[in-house]
Amino acid sequence: MSSTARLRALHGTPLDDGATRRTVESTARALAEREGIELLAVEVAPDGITITVDAERIVGLGFVAELRRVTNKWYEDKYRDGPLWGTPLPGTEFEFD
């Protein structure tokens, strides 16, 4: 069973920046390795990241929530520019397939 989730940037296209893009993608890969979750696909676009994991939906949700938390912290500390992913309206935090 696999699940796919997408995080979208709160504003603009921050993943156009190479350093930001590489950090977000490498963080996703490192988090998956640390937690023993198999990444089936990682697609990085200028405005977000889509991740498919070989796990049930609840595991995918936890994975994306942790990725969001870690990368928001990094982005805020490095750029002093507010959250990368933001705080969406209730019920719209993550998109799942």
Protein model, in words:
The chain has 97 residues and is an alpha+beta fold. 42% of the residues lie in helices and 22% in strands. It has helices spanning 18-35, 57-79; strands at 3-8, 39-45, 48-53, 95-96. The chain has a four-stranded antiparallel β-sheet, covered by helices on one side. A hairpin with a 2-residue loop joins strand 2 (39-45) and strand 3 (48-53).
Give the SSE layout.
Blueprint: E1 3-8, H1 18-35, E2 39-45, E3 48-53, H2 57-79, E4 95-96
Antiparallel strand pairs: 1-3, 1-4, 2-3
Helix pairs in contact: 1-2
According to DSSP, the number of beta strands is 4
What is the first-to-last residue Cα distance?
12 Å
* Structural class by SSE content: alpha+beta
Number of helices: 2
Radius of gyration: 12 Å
Spatial strand sequence of the major β-sheet: 2-3-1-4
Residues in helix, %: 40-55%
Features:
4-stranded antiparallel sheet; 97 residues; alpha+beta
Short description:
It is built from two helices and four strands; from the N terminus they run βαββαβ. Strand 2 and strand 3 form a beta hairpin.
